[in-house]
Amino acid sequence: MNLPQVADAMQTLFLRGPSVTLRMIILVILSIILMTADHRWQHLDTVRNTLSYLLFPVEYVVDLPIRLYYWGQQNMSSHQTLLRENRDLKDLQLQSRVQLQKLDILEKENERLRQLLSATPKTPEDHLIAEIVSVDVDPYRHFIVLNKGAKDRVYKGQPIIDAHGVMGQIVYVNALTSTAMLISDVSHAIPVQIDRTGLRSVAFGAGQTDYLDLRHIPHNADIRVGDKLISSGLGERFPRNYPVATITNIDRDTGETFIDVRALPMAQLDTSREVLLVWTENHQQILTGMEQIEEASDQGTAETADDDTAQQESTETVDGRE
Fold this sequence. Notes:
Oligomer: single chain
Number of helices: 4
Shape: elongated
Order of helices and strands: HHHEEEEEEEEEEEEH
Largest sheet: 6 strands, antiparallel, barrel
CATH topology of the domain at 126-286: Thrombin, subunit H
Number of strands: 12
Strand order of the largest sheet: 1-2-5-4-3-12
CATH class of the domain at 126-286: Mainly Beta
Helix content: 40-55%
């Protein structure tokens, strides 16, 4: 068979059957029928599920290089991040150890000076870590609930701090939990003093976690923006020398008797998850004093009630005589 005959045979082979246009129309009609049947009666769900199981290994193999790329990139990034954090923590630990050594030297020197001056020794303190389990949803009450209670020796009026400064004090104690009022609550006040000058004042909560109010400060007071406020220890409720806030705004209005001072709390009032409960040696004296105040208040209430009852009985007697 010569070449022309072979070409004619191949052309006859490829031209055999329906035309391309007819085959396309048939396939389009078949596709429409299959889509309609699948949409109305879901007859192809089984076929689709079977095909998905059969094609899953192929899809997995095709997608495997991309998965390996992202997995390696994530692992390398996580490894580098851990190495960097570990290095930063080591540097921070070294700095903290140096500072602790300096503080230990200063504490010993301070103790020697106190002995020379026959001064009162520094009151030792005890701490316990507690977790915040809930926060009061009332925007006008800055209260938090801790997972420590009476079984952990928590007492009413006990101060709480976090890693940055004073947070507040315990106001309610249950067997397993306790409730603390933050220093930002409108009904809270804490005695403070300026670390730079020693000027004493009282920081009042303003109902906002981003500032405290300092009241009754005269115009000639030596106070500046950036001054640190520490607890003064007056009232023996909060221990001395704990950081409280930083002065952020001073409004010296000449028409007012006192200047308007605002300070940013140093404690992370709205983000801290753990706090420290602080015990001092005189906490038992504080408890005794609070109990005496409550007993005196109860006795005063009872005496007032007795006086009212006696006055009412006297009035009834007079009315009966008349």
